[in-house]
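Subject: complex prediction, re-run

Hi both,

The earlier run crashed halfway through, so I resubmitted it with identical inputs.
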Amino acid sequence: MSGEQELGITESKEHSTGDWYAEVVQKAELASYAPMGGFIVTRPRGYAIWERLRDHLDGWFKDTGVRNAYFPLFIPESYLEREADVVEGFDPEVAWVTHGGYDELEERLAVRPTSESIITPFIAEWVRSHRDLPMRVNQWCSVVRWEATETKPFFRTKEFLWQEGHTAHADPEGARDETMTRLDQYERLYEEVMALPALKGRKPPHDKFPGAHTTTTIETLMPDGKSVQAATSHYLGTSFAEAFDITYADEDERERTAHTTSWGISWRAMGALIMAHSDDQGLVLPPTLAPEQVVVVPIWQEDSEAEVVEYAADVAAELDEAGIRAHLDDRENRNPGFKYNEHELKGVPLRIEVGPNEVENGELTLVHRPDSENAVADRAGAVETVEEHLDTVYAKLYARAEATLEGEIRAAESREEILGTIGQHGGYVKTGWCGDEGCEEPVKEAIAAEVVMVPLDRDEEPVHEECAICGEDATETAYWARTY
Amino acid sequence: MSGEQELGITESKEHSTGDWYAEVVQKAELASYAPMGGFIVTRPRGYAIWERLRDHLDGWFKDTGVRNAYFPLFIPESYLEREADVVEGFDPEVAWVTHGGYDELEERLAVRPTSESIITPFIAEWVRSHRDLPMRVNQWCSVVRWEATETKPFFRTKEFLWQEGHTAHADPEGARDETMTRLDQYERLYEEVMALPALKGRKPPHDKFPGAHTTTTIETLMPDGKSVQAATSHYLGTSFAEAFDITYADEDERERTAHTTSWGISWRAMGALIMAHSDDQGLVLPPTLAPEQVVVVPIWQEDSEAEVVEYAADVAAELDEAGIRAHLDDRENRNPGFKYNEHELKGVPLRIEVGPNEVENGELTLVHRPDSENAVADRAGAVETVEEHLDTVYAKLYARAEATLEGEIRAAESREEILGTIGQHGGYVKTGWCGDEGCEEPVKEAIAAEVVMVPLDRDEEPVHEECAICGEDATETAYWARTY
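This time it finished cleanly. Structure:
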């Protein structure tokens, strides 16, 4: 049927990654393009993934002392200007509200590009004494950055969903610990929920968040060999606290300046998830995040319909009862092949096929979405069997992503070697580095690759003694890659 | 101590309701005023209430076929204009984005005042066949309406949090059922979670949502005798489906127009909650919504400190273990009286006092926030005891609100009687009504009261045979009140 043809993915992940990604996002009904360039509509199947990511993180945040709040969508221009570094960073990218109803506003309002400049003054107001610290607030919201780039759902959009956490602490140790706690939680989300291994590190000084003392980052690798900055956590030192006057009385009633952090993850994580795992049949999702974890498909001939459908319905109900998100696809007007294609396209991790043979033998046929591996199991103990297979599907996805990442970290000792290796293979190249931004320039200009991170441990020896670019003493190891 | 004095509520609920409300909101740390008039910052204690309201409703929505999505924050002006009724209703109240970065936009973008005009075209795109119906999407988001009124946190703010549900159905019955399902869920939220009885009805024709066939409403009474429109659910007929072309192929492949609904509840519900239950000591919350349900306060003298604090900590831990949100207030630098005041101000529903006597007798002293009633109970079985007391606190709040509501519905038979009754008592007045907007005018002009709703059952006889204003035949019963 030509109808079936059009439903499926027509682009190739290997040969046209960008077009393939856009096709998967739309045909798996995750998102549609909005009428305004740079904006998307997140459809229910897409939003359900975001909700699950949010709920995992939100639970961990709350378990570790974070409380949610909600700050205004708009920030007065004068507030944005109070923190010079922030303005320098974001001013050109801001959407401005200039009119309310028929009237021009006296002061323009920025649609929040990030909320340091409106949240920090309130933290300053709320913090009086060392007993008020640490103070941690977080909000789940959307932000707008008016960047003139091509729309790529979840990766590059003018409006995006994220969370932004903002905390204040009595001393640098508390703030540094906070920064690492959040980075570790982002890493945990990637590893335990998204089935994606990630690299953890610091951004080089010239690529820090404006005003930050240290920007830490989680980087993950895409199939086209580019690195995605998956989440960041910033130790802000006292720069914001000084600009916005967050001081507190310590135990001896002396006035001290607080140390602050901020940290965030956006729906770009969803983009990385979709792009890393999916294939030419469509969306692939880990069972942790799939709206439906299992689809049960009855396969009947005219004389066996009632029996087969009842058996399948019974399996689906038993799984559902046990808290597994199971869907029975007993549509009369679609054949099994059509259904298989549709559920593969939509990323259902596990398919259970039930035909007259399965009914007769008291069995189930289980098929894994990522590699079509199938197995026959006893009908009895279906819940346990399905849970095991879902775990296996997760493990397969993680193992595949891990093998890819490990194979894509290569060493280099010269500018030519960096260019050649990234040019040929993509992925990460690690080198000795003097730490100078000037040594990044020639690589950036030649192949648009940059230093995406340096390992966190400052005491560790660089991989080589010399900077791969200038040959001076290396002070650290740099990971180079092309980026999203 | 003068410090303690300032912490408490200084305004009177009875004599200066507005000032008292603003003081409770701020001193209980629910919200602060933002630098821009009309905007507020929802602080963690306030946002936690909103999260619980959201989570209750969201669960019920999902159990009844609703899926969440996220549509863009901005709506192009031309989209807003496509539905003339919507534009007429909202145009003057819209915040306009005119610039992105340094550039003026070719088309102005409205910050969403409500999302019919952006969601409906997508529903039209997604609905093809009767098999796609019913289609239900919902989003939790903020909306902006540029109304020039005094800021009243949660009641009147230019930006507010809400959810908006939008659905399409094959026939009017399906859409009407949907409208009532959501209205019933809002009523359930009020009755089972917010401890507030509510009146359910239709808005009079001239006060419907623009473009709606029927607007149904939940109304609840505030202590100053004014009615709050607590949530609305609209049956939109085919007006939006026609304007945005939501058609589907029925079972015989004939093209038909869908019937749509929309329904929403905003954080005004929080305003109603706070205003209805709280008192001159501060915030009062039902245990269902309180961030902390129980506070355990140890009361020691020097020689009993270790013993008492350990006993109190043990109680708090046991409650916490059982899923009760319990907080141990063992601060050394505050005396018990200060703590009592603070937790009363912040609306903790139940206080457990533990002193040397309680330790010696193996008992607990429990104090109810709403009326300070106290009881002594055995330490053994603390979880069950506390659960019972929390239920009792809920029941007390509900009963008090119900008695108030029942006592505040009065009948009237003439314009003078409406004016006199509402003028003297506030509350609701029910009368016979001809259904003509013209008959509402004289009451509106005289005392700013209006017809807030008519009962849902159209077959029911009006309370009087004649319209209380014009004396013509009454077609229905009108409930009159002043409103928020």
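The two ends of chain B are 38 Å apart (CA to CA).

- K.
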